[in-house]
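Dear colleagues,

As part of the handover before I leave the project, I'm documenting each prediction I ran so the next person doesn't have to rerun anything. This entry is a single chain, and its sequence is reproduced below.
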Amino acid sequence: MYKFKIKPSIKNFLNNNLDIGSFLLEKSLSHFKLEKFKEDKFVIVSDKGKFVVQSGVDPKPLQIIAQNGITPDIIVSGILETGEFIFVQNYVEASIPEENWLIKNPKLLVSLIQKLHNINNLKDILPKLGSESHKDCFQIYLQDIEKDLDELEKFKNNKKIISSLFYLYSKKIQSISSKGLCPIHGDLYFNNLLLAKNSSLYLIDWEELHMSDPVRDIALLAWSCFPRKYWKYLSELFGYNLDNKEFRIRFFLHISTRFLYLYLELVKSGYYEYAQQFIKYSILSSKLLEN
């Protein structure tokens, strides 16, 4: 466990806005054991209970999401002296659901994600990726990846692989004609799910929340949380058919582009060894895209 002190600006906010008296820092809640994340999210303990404190994420859309029972309640929110967003949530006694639990309860998870996708009053406050076209969404995701590729020297060992992936992406997105954006979590995997002791299910960690193709959530969830033999059934629960050519292209494009982006971000930050699994995932999912 990394030791750190609460930033003075956060401590001032808590003292001025949270009526809990004195409190102690319990632990970092970061799911990544990487030092750079340690001050962004943590638990405080007081005589009135436990609370999760997080900075750097706009709480306005999260308040709407919490009102819909999708994420734990937000108690107080604001802006720090530094200009950063901050909010405090109720701490929920929960654990990350195991794969077997998800396989037995997929409808509960699907219902929760569909509830998020159907919150219409988020549309006016979330960032949008261009027009309603899913093709435009992919083009913007690729632009974000290209920004990282400007530091090409760091990626020279995989330059040929990355170039071939880009060629495949550019070719495949031309066949996408579907439209319609909705609020998506954008980073669905085991560690961003919480199963409470009362069997309530929550989504957490909303740094990637934005308006996009709903299939992005479905694809990342399937890849990260379910064995491959369940992907078709999971897609059907969301109302899609994995045998449909265009849906299949969107499904595997979302997986491959997301993991390539994560690979580049980790390499930029110096986590070379940890990054290698993500380039492998990107390549593997691109091969499924070609089938």
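The two ends are 44 Å apart (CA to CA). Residues 28-38 have pLDDT under 50 and may be disordered.

All the best with the project,
I.
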